[in-house]
Amino acid sequence: MSDLKPLPAHLIGGNFLLTETAPDLVFTPEDLSSEQRLMAQTAEKFMDKEVMPNVEALEHQQEGLTPKLFRQAGELGLLGMGVPAEYDGLGLDKTSAVGVEEQLTRLGGFGVTCGAHCGIGTQPLLYFGTEAQKQKYLSKLATGEWMAAYALSEAGSGSDALGLRTKATLSADGKHYLLNGTKMWISNSAWANLFTVFTKVDGQHTTAFLVERTFPGVSLGKEEHKLGIKTSSTRRVILEDAQVPVENLLGEVGKGAYIAFNILNLGRFKLGAGAIGAAKESLKIAIRYALERQQFGRPIAAFGLIQQKLADMTTRIFAGESAVYRTAAMMDAVCETGELMDSMNPPFLRGLDEFALECSIIKVACSEILDAVADESLQIHGGYGYTEEFPAARIYRDSRINRIFEGTNEINRLFIPGLLLRRAQRGRFPLGPAIAKVSKDLLDMSPLDEVSGDQLAVAQALLVNAKKLSLFVSGVAYQKFGEKLGEEQEVVAHLSDMMSDVYLAESALLRTRKVRPAKANSSIMTDLTLAFINDAAGRLERQARQALAATVQGDELRAQLGIVRRLLRWSPLNGVALRRRIAKRLCDVGSFPALVAGH
Known about the structure:
single chain, alpha+beta, Butyryl-CoA Dehydrogenase, subunit A, domain 3, Butyryl-Coa Dehydrogenase, subunit A, domain 1, 4 domains, two-stranded antiparallel sheet, 20 helices, globular
C-alpha cells in the first residue's frame, strides 16, 4: 500500500519469513526495566494475597467477590495499563502489560474476567470511540469502577463471526437504535456495565454499539454451566427493542466488521500472553509435586520420564514467552510512530494492524503450549491430579477454552497464510518474488552439515532453510490450487504450523544469542533453545511432507521431497541429555522464572 511509510525489515508483519533479524533488534524478557518488573510484581502480590487464597469461593461465584477483587485490581492500576493518563489509565505500552497479564491468568477464570475487560471489552472504545464516548466511559473502565464485555458471538454464527442475526433499526424519532437479538457466550455478562454489541443495521450493515446494561430492553440469561473457568461469568445477552442512543454508535454504520477483526487481533495476542502465565503456574505446581511425591524411595522428579515431561513443558514455555515479548515490542515500536492505516475507515494504528499474523501465531501456539503443560502437570500428579483436591484438575479444565476463544485455533490457522496472500495481492507484502527467488536458488543452497560453528550456528542455519522451505511449499500449493488454495484447509493448516514453528524457534534463538553471546553454549537458555529446535525440525519436515503429498504426486512429489530432505538436513541432538540438564536445573530452582533468571 503506497500510503504506508517504509518500516525497518524486522518491523514488517510476516517479514520474519523473508529476512534475518539481528539479536540486538529483538526485545526479550531480560530487557524489562525495573519499572516494568515492578508492575508485574504488584500483580503477583495481588494474586498471592487477595485472589489465590479465595479460589474455592471464586470458583463457586460467591456473591460480590469477583467484582470486589476486580475493583481492587483497578485501584492498583492493573486494569488501565494501556489507557492514556487523561482517562485515568497508566498509558503504558503492550510490553509493560505482558507481565501483569501473565499474573492475572494464574487463576484461569479471574484471568478471563480481567482479560476480557482490558482487551476486547475496553479496546473498541479506546481505539474507535469518539472523544465524548471516551470521556463518558473510559475512566470508569480504566479504574475498575465499571466492567466491560464484548458481545459478538451468536448461537448460529459459530466461526462465521459476521453471520449475525441481531438487528438494529433507527427509531421513528431518530434518537435511538432499537436492537433485537441474542448474544451467546458473553464473558463478564453477570457483572458488566458496558457491552460492545455487534449488530446489522437494517439487517445488512455490520455495526458496533456501546450498550449499557441498564438500557431498556437489555436482559441476561442464566449462568452457563461450563467445563472450566468457573470463576468467570458467561451468559447470554438478550436484546428486545433495546434502546441505544444514537450517540452510542461506535465508529460508523457498516464499519463494525473492521472494528471486530482488529480488536480480535489484539485479543489474540493478549490471550497468548496470558496463556504463558498460566503455563508457568501449572509448571510450578508440577515441579513442587514431583519433588514432594516419593516412589520407590525417591522423589518422582528423579525419574527420567518425569524429567522429560518437566523439560518439555519448560522448553515450550521458553519459546512461547520469547515470541510474546518479541511481538509486543514490535507492536509498540510501530505504534510509537503514530502512523495510521488512514486508507481504511475508520483509521487505525498501523502498529496494531501490522502484526495481525504474529498475533494469530501467538494465540494458537501459546494456547496449545498451555494445554500441553496443563495435561502433563495433571499426568505428573497421577491419580491425585484427577481429583479437585489438587490444582492440576482446575488448571486442566481452565486451559481448554483458550483454543476456542478469540476465533478457534482452526480459524486462526487458516488466517495466517491467508493474510500473507491477501497482503501480497494488495502489493503490501512481497510474497510472490520471495517464493520465486527461493525456487530459483534451491540448487545453490549449502546443506546443513557444511555449516561450521557451534550448535546455535547450526540451528540458525536450519531456521534459514526452514523459512525457505515454508516459502517453497507455499509456492507449490499456490501453483497447484491458485485462488482456491483457501478451500484446501488441511494444506493451509500445514503451512500455518510451519510458519508458527519457525517464528517461535527463531524468537528463542534470537533471545539466547542476545542474552549470552559470549557464553551461549554453557547457558541453560541454549539447552532450552536447542531442545525446542531439535523437536521443531521433525515437525517441520512432517508438515512439509504432508502438505506436498496433498498437492502433487509421482515423480514431482519425489523430487520435492528430496528438496525437503536437503533443506532440513539435521543431525538429531541428544534430546535425553538436553532434557535431563533442563529438568535438574529446574528442580534446583523450583520455577521457570528462576530458571531463566539464573542463565
